């Protein structure tokens, strides 16, 4: 091969024994900057790509086209190596997935029925929430028991369709795709399930989550529960949601909490009621308001924000009880939150206090780890200690004497964890308990874990399930 800068010269390819201009990985064409098929001149050390895309490089091939044959041979070798490496990695991944599905119990090996969720492109925020909800038994069983809905007919019936964002939204059902996703989990028939149909519906009805950028798992959970609630209110497959609720005797009328209209399984399980008390500091007028909630967002007290690990020695460890106390303690509102006193007829300084008027069957606690400072949204990386069993909520109730001792105790069902430094980056995983065993859900990978590992996690969202009366009364 002839160098374009010299009338007569010799060039070598990357497979040659000597590299006069550094290692082959550092070679790139001096004209088009490509690092594919580089050739270096032994006389002037110029590097060119050896392709016809680079107009500055001249190739003097033989009459039999030997240079072209060499290039094609090198390309085939490169493609073969890439394909072999890809098959090897896939085989290792499949073997590791199969091995992780096996568990030794009492000396015998049994299969783990847990199924992972494939990451569709920064969708770990969705996967972590779905895995957590799938392990809240009463909530999950309700959706799995719903009748299936055939959303397609005619020529497309029974066929797999690939959706695009340009398609209409008249024929989508969040409830149906959520039901199918939950049914696919814990069957043990596959190591990972791809929730692309559910994600397609999310794109259609939740524009905030379109695209493949990282999203906030808590925000997604709220949107998901709200839209499930709204769709169930409108009926499902010709069956009113009230008749479906009545079929489940455990979701009695006394357990229902209405948010945005009639009650559904969402509000029956996650719904609670807060009492908001505001007192004017000038005239003493008290104002009370009852607010329904699906979850409680708790601040991490500022005095604990430098405590990043459980074993760190600088000061006491922040506990979930500290966060709950901060949420319910009497607070004086600052100048930007002046209360409009109806007696004083103007905005006045005031105090505010929250009481829990009604506890939900599943208590969802969101730790506010992301906050705005100037133009940045920073993460509070403080470790917060939380109990696995016996979270006692009685002291936060408005009328604790009207609640039985067992009704105020909660046991942990699932934890969502954010790994990384910012809400728009990082990675979400989840821990959840199923049939007495703890699992770690990391997208398509599901592994067994233990309680010691779970309690060390820096929780972002905690799901606590109301303890049944037959359980013990140990408190933590």
Automatic annotation (TrEMBL):
Q: Name one GO biological process term.
A: proteolysis
Q: Which UniProt keywords apply?
A: Hydrolase, Metal-binding, Protease, Thiol protease, Ubl conjugation pathway, Zinc, Zinc-finger
Superkingdom, according to UniProt?
Eukaryota
- Keyword Cell membrane appears in the UniProt entry: no
Q: Which reaction does it catalyse?
A: Thiol-dependent hydrolysis of ester, thioester, amide, peptide and isopeptide bonds formed by the C-terminal Gly of ubiquitin (a 76-residue protein attached to proteins as an intracellular targeting signal)
Q: Which residues form the USP domain?
A: 115-467
UniProt EC number: 3.4.19.12
UBP-type domain: residues covered? 1-140
GO molecular function annotation = cysteine-type deubiquitinase activity; zinc ion binding
Q: Which Pfam families match?
A: UCH (PF00443), zf-UBP (PF02148)
Q: Which GO CC terms are listed, alphabetically?
A: nucleus
Q: What InterPro entries does its record include? A: Papain-like_cys_pep_sf (IPR038765), Peptidase_C19_UCH (IPR001394), Ub_carboxyl-term_hydrolase (IPR050185), USP (IPR028889), USP_CS (IPR018200), Znf_RING/FYVE/PHD (IPR013083), Znf_UBP (IPR001607)
Tell me the protein family, please: Belongs to the peptidase C19 family.
Task of the protein: Deubiquitinating enzyme that removes conjugated ubiquitin from specific proteins to regulate different cellular processes.
Record-given protein name: Ubiquitin carboxyl-terminal hydrolase
Q: Which gene encodes it?
A: USP3
């Amino acid at each position: 091969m002839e160098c374009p800068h010299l009338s007569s010269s010799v060039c070598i390819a990357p497979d040659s024994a000597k590299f006069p201009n550094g290692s082959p990985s550092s070679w790139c064409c001096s004209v088009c900057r490509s690092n594919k098929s580089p050739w270096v001149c032994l006389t002037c050390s110029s590097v060119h790509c050896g392709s016809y895309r680079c107009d500055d490089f001249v190739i003097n091939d033989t009459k039999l086209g030997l240079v072209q044959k060499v290039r094609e041979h090198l390309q085939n070798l490169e493609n073969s190596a890439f394909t072999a490496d890809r098959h090897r990695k896939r085989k290792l991944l499949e073997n590791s997935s199969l091995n992780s599905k096996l568990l030794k119990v009492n000396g015998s090996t049994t299969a783990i029925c847990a199924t992972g969720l494939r990451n569709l492109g920064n969708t770990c925020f969705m996967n972590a929430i779905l895995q957590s909800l799938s392990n809240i038994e009463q909530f999950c069983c309700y959706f799995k028991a719903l009748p299936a809905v055939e959303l397609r007919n005619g020529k497309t019936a029974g066929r797999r369709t690939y959706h695009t964002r340009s398609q209409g939204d008249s024929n989508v059902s969040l409830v149906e795709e959520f039901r199918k996703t939950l049914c696919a989990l814990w069957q043990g028939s596959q190591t990972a399930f791809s929730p692309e149909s559910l994600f397609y519906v999310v794109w259609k009805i939740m524009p905030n989550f379109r695209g493949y950028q990282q999203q906030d798992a808590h925000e997604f959970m709220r949107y998901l529960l709200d839209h499930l609630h709204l769709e169930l209110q409108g009926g499902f497959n010709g069956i009113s949601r009230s008749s479906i609720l009545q079929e489940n005797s455990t979701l009695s009328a006394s357990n229902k909490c209405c948010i945005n209209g009639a009650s559904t399984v969402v509000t029956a399980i996650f719904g609670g009621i807060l009492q908001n008390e505001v007192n004017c500091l000038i005239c003493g007028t008290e104002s009370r308001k009852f607010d329904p909630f699906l979850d409680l967002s708790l601040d991490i007290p500022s005095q604990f924000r430098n405590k990043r690990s459980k074993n760190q020695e600088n000061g006491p460890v922040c506990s979930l009880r500290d966060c709950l106390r901060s949420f319910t303690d009497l607070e004086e509102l600052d100048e930007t939150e002046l209360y409009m006193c109806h007696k004083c007829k103007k905005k006045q300084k005031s105090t505010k206090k929250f009481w829990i008027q009604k506890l939900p069957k599943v208590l969802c606690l969101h730790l506010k780890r992301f906050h705005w400072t100037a133009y940045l949204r920073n993460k509070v990386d403080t470790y917060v200690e939380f109990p696995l069993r016996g979270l006692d909520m009685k002291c936060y109730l408005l009328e604790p004497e009207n609640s039985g001792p067992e009704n105020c105790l909660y046991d942990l069902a699932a934890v969502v964890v954010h790994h990384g430094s910012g809400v728009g980056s990082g990675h979400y995983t989840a821990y959840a308990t199923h049939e007495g065993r703890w699992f770690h859900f990391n997208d398509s990978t599901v592994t067994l874990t233990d309680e010691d590992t779970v309690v060390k996690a820096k929780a972002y969202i905690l799901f606590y399930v109301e303890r049944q009366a037959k359980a013990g009364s140990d408190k933590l």
